[in-house]
Every structure is written in structure tokens, then in C-alpha cells.
Amino acid sequence: MRKRLLCALLAAALVMSAGCSRYTASREFSLFAMDTLVNVTLYTGEPEAASKEQAIMSGAVSSIEKALSVTREDSDISRVNRKSGQQGTTVDSGTIEVLSRALELCQVTDGALDITAYPAVKAWGFTQEEHRVPSPTELEALAAKIDYSAVKLEEDTVTLPEGMEIDLGAVAKGYAGDWLARDARGNGITSALLDLGQSTIVAVGSKPGGSPWRIGVVDPARPENYFAVVELEDMAMGTSGGYQRYFEQDGVTYWHILDPDTAAPARSGLSSVTVVSPSAFLCDGLSTALFVMGLEKGTAFWRDHPELEFEAIFVTEDGEIYRTAGLEGRFSLAEGYTDREVTVLE
Ligand code: ADP
Ligand code: MG
Q1: Ligand lying closest to the C-alpha of residue 6
Q2: In this predicted model, what pLDDT tens digit does every residue of 73-85 receive, in sequence order?
Q3: What is the pTM of this model?
Q4: pLDDT at residue 25 in the model
Q5: Quick one: CA torsion of 86, 92, 97, 100, rounded to 10 degrees?
Q6: Most distant CA pair in the chain: distance in Å?
Q7: Is it the case that residue 9 has pLDDT exceeding 60?
Q8: Which atom of ligand 1 lies closest to the CA of 118?
Q9: 298 and 118 in contact (C-beta within 8 Å)?
Q10: Secondary structure class of 340 (helix, strand, coil)
Q11: How far, in Å, CA of 82 to CA of 320, rounded?
């Protein structure tokens, strides 16, 4: 319920931000996939182009879900997971592409992102929303089985060792966002906003009037508010935060982003990480990875990887705000937050 409410709030905020221009949306529609509501706002002078785009996008989102969903029994990923410890599984070439890009990101982030965390995600009950706290012995056994480097990709075949399962939950929305944006651009759409649920957004072009899209960044301490606004033009943004999916037990909060080293919720001192980059895939995957790394390692990672062309905003559990220097001119504090200090990372 909570997730739905947040989606609705975000959608409303986006529409408000788009509504500032004197143009009206040619087409707004929602697609439900990947456990989330995908809200699309397209601006085009031609209604036919919008209808065509809507049909293509809804088909694409369902085929991406059919390939990558971890909860659908007939998806490529579920078929691969059922065969762990057995022979390899043949999958679609698109699935291989996502898997190989995801594995590259696991490697670059030195395993902060690890797509084989799935058995641990399940053990905490995050898949079925039947939450429980696994024992320390159980966590140790689960952590021992998390190792992306053991996933074998050979042409169109994926092989997993015994006891291992994969989950592309940390990057699937980003992948879908890039796909939809590329398609929209390819079909001549120069102004659109793709909101893949509460955490991943892709801006195609600018607002119809030519000014950048203005997207709110959720305050992890009060998720109904935005603490900052980022201006985006042909750019994606993704946020991972402990407030997005969690449960409480005996006064402790447990969230859905796990540290692959411990198989337990990542406690790095951060409460959210937002990544801005031309690639939604990178935004999605890196926001999860940087959340696991924490502020210090995350900042070092940003400095060490200029080739990835991303910028980041970190919010600590104490409510401190940090942002990277490359967001200069695109980042501002939202109304009600203008007295907050922002540390610029150079
Ligand atoms: P959301 O899906 O809410 O946008 P994220 O993009 O941060 O959030 O992805 C979190 C999801 O990815 C979790 O629900 C889980 O399925 C999976 N996951 C959790 N921790 C990791 C991790 N360290 N590496 C890869 N996937 C993870
Ligand atoms: Mg992610």
C-alpha cells in the first residue's frame, strides 16, 4: 500500500512539474509491470505518434518483465534459477545482454552490486513481503553463496552453481527506462518523461517549452517530501533508499538493500543515494551499489570512475546531504529545505 501511495504522490508531483509549462501533455498513460507503476508522459504534436508509442511501450514493458521477472515462473530468470546446480539454460539474447551488463557492473563495483543476492533477498522475505530475520548462522551460509563471478554466460546459455539464484531487481527498471527512452527518441519524440516507479526516472529531451525537467529527490526521513530538485535534460536519475521497502521488528528497521558480504541489510550510514547519468541502467545499478558502499567508499568510487559519467547525491542517516561537483547548476534545495547545508564533493 505504502509503495502505491508513494508512486501516486510521485506521479502527481511529476505532473505538477510538467504542468508549469503552457503546453498540455499529448498523452499520459500508466503501465503496470515489474511490481511497479510505469508512468509515461509524452509530448508530441501528433496524436498518432503518441498512440503508436503507447502500444510499443506497453508491449516492450511486458516482454522485459517476461524475460527478467524473478517472481514470474515462466521468465528467463526464473528458468535459470530453477536449474541452478544443473545444466545451463538457454535464454533470449536480450536477457543475455542485460545479464552481461549487470555482471560488468557487479565487477566494477567490486561486488557491492551482486545479482546473486537473491537467496538472501528471499530469506528476509522481501520477495513475498513475508518478512523475517534470518539467524546469524543462516546469514553466514547465505553470504557464502553470493558470488556474481560464479555466473557463467556462454553465448545464449546461463549456468549457475548449486544453491545460487539471480535477481535483476536492482537494474531491471533502469534497463526498461533506457529501452523506452531509446524507442521514444527513435520515433521522433523529443519531449517525454518516463517514471519507472518511485525510484527511476528518464527525461527524454527537455520540457516542451525547452526548459529542463525538474525532478524532486525524496527526503528519506520524510518520504512524502522532496528535499531537492534536479534539473534533467536527456538524462536519467535513480534513487535507492532504505525507506523504499523495509520492515520493522523489535524496534529495528530492516531494508531491502543487502550487503553481499553479510547477506543482511546494508548499514553503511546512508539513508539514500541518488545517481544522475545518461544511462538509467547505470543510475539504477549504481544507486544500489553506492548505498552498499557508504559515503566514503562511494565518493572514492565516483572519483575513480570518471568514465562512467555519473553524478551522485548522498543522504546520511543523520540527515547530512552531500552532492558531487558535477551537479553544479542542476541541483537545488527544495522549498522548506533551503536552510540545509549541502557538502560538495570534489
Ligand atoms: P528498488 O527496486 O526499490 O528501486 P533498488 O534498485 O535499490 O531498489 O534494488 C533493490 C533490489 O535489488 C532489492 O529488492 C533486491 O531484490 C535486489 N538487491 C538488494 N541488494 C542488492 C545488492 N547488493 N546487489 C544487487 N541486488 C540487490
Ligand atoms: Mg537499483
Answers
A1: 1
A2: 999 999 999 999 9
A3: 0.92
A4: 58
A5: 0
A6: 60
A7: no
A8: 16
A9: no
A10: coil
A11: 43
